[in-house]
Structures are given as C-alpha cells and as structure tokens.
Design a protein that fits this description.
With 606 residues, the chain is of the alpha+beta class. The chain is 40% helix and 14% strand. The strands form six sheets. The protein has a six-stranded mixed β-sheet. Strands 8-7-12-9 form a four-stranded mixed β-sheet. Strands 13-14-15 form a three-stranded antiparallel β-sheet. The longest helix has 21 residues, at 512-532. The structure holds iron/sulfur cluster.
C-alpha cells in the first residue's frame, strides 16, 4: 500500500510503501492506522499541537469492486479523550482517494496559514485556503468545486467548529461524517481546511477469477437478505421503534429508558413526511441513506442528509424533544458546522439537566430557557457550541470538562466514558452495551462492541457470557473496520467471506481464524496505546448514574450495572490481568512484543 505523507510545516511531500507483512498482519484501515500511530506518536503528545499526527487509511478491498467497502478510517490522538481515536467516514471519498493514487494519507506538523490538499492522479499539491476559512462544509465543497476544473472530484473538509477548536468537531464529506472524538479539531489545529482527490487509478486484484466467485456469492447474500432490504428501505432510524419498547432508548439525558412520544420522532414520520429520496455510498446496493427536506414552518427551508438513528435520538428523546423538524434542522447545522451530532446533543442534554437541577440559570445561558423539550433552545445551543459563545464555549469542551467547569455535582450528569459522550443505548437494561462503552478504546462508543443479541434479542439483562461476547464482537468489528467494511452491511458478508475476498485481492491467504486473530491483535494494540498514555482499569467505567441509580427491571426489580463483575470477565476473556493489562503470553501470541513493535510499518529507506 502506498501512503502519501504531507509535512504541513515544511509544505513538502513524501511517498511511503507499507511493508507487505504489515498489510498481511493488520489488513488496512483501523489496523494499519493503530499500528502506525503506536510506532510514530511519542507518548504524552498534546493532541492539538503540531506534534500530533492525523492519518487516513483505506484497505486493499476498498474500491476493488467489493460492496460496502467505503469507510475511510481516520486515526489520531483524540483531543476530547486523549485516547487513540479511530473514526470512519462513508460516502465516496475513501474509494476516490485510491483512484487518486494513494492508499492513505499522513499529515504531520502545522501549516502557517490555512491550506487544502489536492491529490490529482498521484500528484499532490497544497493550495491556499485562507479564502475558505470560516466557510461551512457545504460552502467549502462548493467553493473548491468552483475553482478546480476536475472530473471525478471528491472533497472532505472541516467547518467552523473544527476551526474554532470545538473538541468534538468532525470531518465532513457531504452528509458523511468522520464524527467522533474531535478528529476535525485535530485537522483544524493543523490549519488544514480540506482534502480534495481526483483520479482514475485502478486497485490491483491478484486473482480475478477467485475474486469474481466470492463476489458473486456476496452479491447473492445481499440480494437474499431480508434484513438488509428492510434496513435500506427504513434506514437506521427504525431502531427508535425497536428499542423504545425494550426500555433501552435513553430519555432526558439517560434519566429513563422509554420515550412516550417516540412515535412523533421515528422512521415512519421521517420517511413519510420528510424523505426526498434514498441514496447509497460508493458501490453499495443497500441504499440506506436518505435526503430529507423541511419545506414549511419555523425551521424551513432545510434540505439535508439524514438524520440517522443516533442523531434523531440525541436531539430527540435525549433532550425530551418531540419536534422532528427541529431535529432535522439541528442535524443540518452540525453537518454545516462540522460537529459530531452525538456529542453535541449529549452536551445539550447534559446542560438541560444542569439547568433543571439549578446548577446553571438564565444568566449562564444568555436567556435561553434550557428546560428539557424546548426545541428552540436545542437549535440555539447548536449555534452557540459551534461558535463557542457563552455556555456554548463550556459545552464545546465536552461534558467531562464542562462538568468540572460548572462544578457542584454536574459530573453526575455528564454521560460520558473517558470523555466521549454516550450513544443511544441504556446500559442498565443492556449490560453488554455498558461493557462495550466502558472498554471501547476511544471512550464511550457503541460501535466497537455492538451486541446485536442484546439490542435486538432477549439477553439484555443477563451478565452471563457478556465478557467473552463483548471481546469477540470487538475483535470482529476491528476486522471490518480494518477492511473499511460498513457495519450496516454486516449481514452481507461473513468473516469467512471477508477472508476469501482479502485472499483473492492480495494473494495472502486469510481464514476466519486468522482474521479473528488480526481483530484481536488490533484491539490489544489499541489497549497498549491507551495504557502507555496512562489509562488504567479505573477509566474503564460508566457514569455514576448507571452504577447507583436503578431503573426498573423486567419484573420491577431495581437494575444498575455491576461494572466490576463485567470487567473481571472481560479481562479474563482477553487474556489480561485484573488491572486490564495484556499478559505476556497474550502479546507474544499476537506478535505484539516490544521487539516486533519497534519494526517500522514502512519499507527500509522510507
Ligand atoms: S449500508 Fe448504508 S451506510 Fe453502509 S455503505 Fe451501504 S449505503 Fe453506505
């Protein structure tokens, strides 16, 4: 794989080739990104200093004709959590980066003035971007399209939130976000406004006949899967109807798990009243994405992409808001400002609880009535956070830091793990999701250990086997992230199918078992990164609310989360000490001993 390194301080470029054995051992995407950051980033670097490294990774399967391999993987050290940060972005940008001649990008240093990267048919150039600074992501994309006479052009950019230092700013490509953990903030700190790519390179496929056979099978899986068909037709917001009756749809900043008004803010309303049309990311037949429009009323006109499930929740049930048009508007503002919707809504829900509990008042909010349910206040606060105005400046640091600044018992209402705001699943009634939040390498993320059996099955209250289930799920997700495979499309290809596809494209044989070992290797390496940064077992925890404030269980009994019980089982399943440190035999089995980790991922001389 060929990686373009951009030195923003010196405005220079170099091309690097990843050793074949590294691609074989880490696949691409999240795997190579973690391996490179572990090797290249000194311990204790300030994430917003020029010393931090921002990197983008594809995989050998991306744009090789495979379905749903679209997720460009951004890796850096998070300014929100100080952990390793891996964030994914769908759409077309990742595949077109490969067409433009690079399998990845590394940005080092900081440009003196704003610039954007243009990579066109393998030729890199840094172009001035002073005139783009301050523009929203949509305006930036339009302006770059206007000044470049290029076909097959794809653009990803930051908006004002990334420029202003909002700690959960995202990188946007149309409505696709590389959203969580402040990767857009790191990009802004480097004075890098955008990345533009164009080209016609063709990815290599070693064994085309074998590839076609596996691809035909996978295409058949997609066609036959009722789950994928339904997912495409309804979209991710179908989870509102699925999860609310199970009591795991968080409401009022996780004070309860059911939203009585959920039928006003669900997929039925969104699809029937606001959807314009469906569309797809590059080379995906599922077409789960949707354009929506608000044509009349106080928030009109809004034409946007989404909102997805987490967003309809974070500005909806999480803020006890039943006005769907305000949710669409808030989603669009986050897209334009370039700001993570989950953390933005999480910060607003936190502020609403602080307001209702008397920790802040109208003087602190510049007169905004922050009672739960006030949809106008939610939209107003999105603007204030992006611009870092008044209370918005405090909330722009994320709920963990905001709680420290507000004081009193505000920390009790900060629904975050390691600084990352939680997503739309109630852990007291979904124990494995709670363990997933507690142990995700980037903080309170739902995606790294998403337990389908809890969310859509019947095992939500049980502790039985959850440690091993979360470990196996995290390893499986790591494989998919390393291959840049969209998690929504999981029903279309098994791990064995992915191994077959990888083997056909690269010529390196991968079985289900060898891929599972790679997933485990990636998770352990990310753990080593975080341990090296000073994280310990005490950071693998949940907000006090889940540990001390019960919700009623299925028979009315009080339900909290016994996090110690879950962690003990999880660490055991992982082959870690009870302090959460990988044991020597685990590291040795996975090829993660010190000597091996000192080998560069790049070929000699690079
Ligand atoms: S399933 Fe949806 S999000 Fe995933 S690649 Fe396909 S269209 Fe994109």
């Amino acid at each position: 794989m060929k990686i373009l390194e951009v030195d923003l301080t010196n405005q220079s470029f170099s091309w690097k080739k990843v050793r074949d054995e590294m691609v074989s051992d880490y696949l691409g995407g999240r795997g190579l990104g973690a391996r490179y950051l572990y090797e290249a980033l000194p311990v204790g670097v300030d994430p917003l200093s020029p010393d931090n490294i921002l990197s983008m990774w594809t995989s050998p399967l991306m744009s090789a004709g495979t379905l749903s391999m679209v997720k460009l993987c951004g890796v850096t050290k998070s300014p929100l959590t100080n952990t390793i940060l891996m964030s994914l972005m769908g759409g077309n940008f990742g595949p077109y980066l490969r067409f433009a001649g690079a399998d990845g990008l590394i940005f080092k240093g900081r440009s003196e003035t704003p610039v954007y990267l243009l990579l066109s048919d393998g030729v890199p150039e840094l172009k001035p971007a002073q005139h783009l600074w301050g523009k929203t992501t949509r305006e930036t994309e339009e302006a770059i399209r206007g000044e470049l006479d290029l076909k097959r052009l794809q653009i990803a950019s930051i908006g004002p939130a990334g420029e202003n230092g909002v700690l959960f700013a995202s990188i946007m490509h149309g409505g696709d976000a590389m959203g969580r953990g402040g990767i857009g903030t790191v990009m802004g700190s480097k004075n890098l406004k955008a990345m533009a790519v164009s080209g016609r390179s063709k990815p290599e496929i070693q064994d085309r006949d074998r590839f076609q056979v596996v691809l035909k099978k996978v295409v058949g899986n997609y066609k036959e899967s009722d789950a994928l068909k339904e997912f495409g037709e309804i979209g991710s917001t179908r989870h509102v109807n699925g999860l609310n009756p199970k009591g795991i749809y968080p409401v009022k900043n996780f004070q309860t798990g059911e939203f009585p008004d959920y039928r006003l803010v669900n997929a039925d309303v969104l699809n029937n009243q606001y959807m314009q049309k469906r569309f797809a990311c590059f080379s995906c037949s599922i077409r789960c994405r949707r354009y929506t429009e608000v044509k009349a009323g106080p928030y009109a006109p809004v034409q946007t992409e989404g909102p997805e499930y987490e967003t309809i929740w974070t500005f909806g049930g999480n803020c006890e808001n039943k006005n769907i048009e305000s949710i669409i508007a808030a989603n669009d503002l986050c897209l334009e400002y370039g700001m993570d919707t989950i953390s933005t809504g999480g910060a607003i829900g936190f502020a609403m609880e602080c307001f209702e509990k008397g920790l802040i008042d109208l003087k602190d909010t510049d007169g905004i009535d922050l009672h739960f349910g006030n949809h106008e206040a939610i939209v107003a606060m999105v603007h204030k956070i992006a611009r870092r105005e008044g209370l918005g400046n405090i909330l722009s640091k994320g709920t963990k830091q905001a709680a420290d600044l507000i004081g009193g018992n505000a920390a009790d209402f900060a629904m975050q793990v390691k600084g990352l705001e939680l997503a739309a699943y109630e852990p007291r009634r979904a124990k494995g999701m709670g363990l997933g939040y507690a142990t995700s390498p980037r903080g309170g993320c739902h995606e790294r250990g998403y337990l389908l059996s809890e969310v859509f099955g019947i095992e939500q209250y049980s502790y039985e086997g959850k440690g091993a289930m979360v470990q196996r799920t995290q390893d499986t997700v790591a494989i998919k992230d390393a291959l840049c495979f969209c998690a929504f499309a999981s029903a279309g290809a098994s791990v064995q199918d992915l191994g077959e596809l990888f083997s056909a494209v690269t010529g390196w044989e991968k079985t289900e078992q060898s891929l599972m070992e790679i997933g485990e290797r990636i998770c352990n390496l990310e753990r080593l990164f975080n341990l090296r940064e000073g994280f310990t077992r005490s950071d693998d925890t949940l907000p006090k609310r889940f540990l001390k404030e019960p919700l009623p269980g299925p028979n009315g009994e009080p339900e909290v989360v016994d996090i110690d019980l879950l962690l003990d089982k999880y660490y055991q399943a992982r082959g870690w000490t009870l302090d959460g440190v990988p044991l020597e035999p685990t590291l040795s089995r996975l090829g993660l001993d010190d000597r091996i980790l000192k080998t560069s991922i790049f070929e000699d001389g690079d």
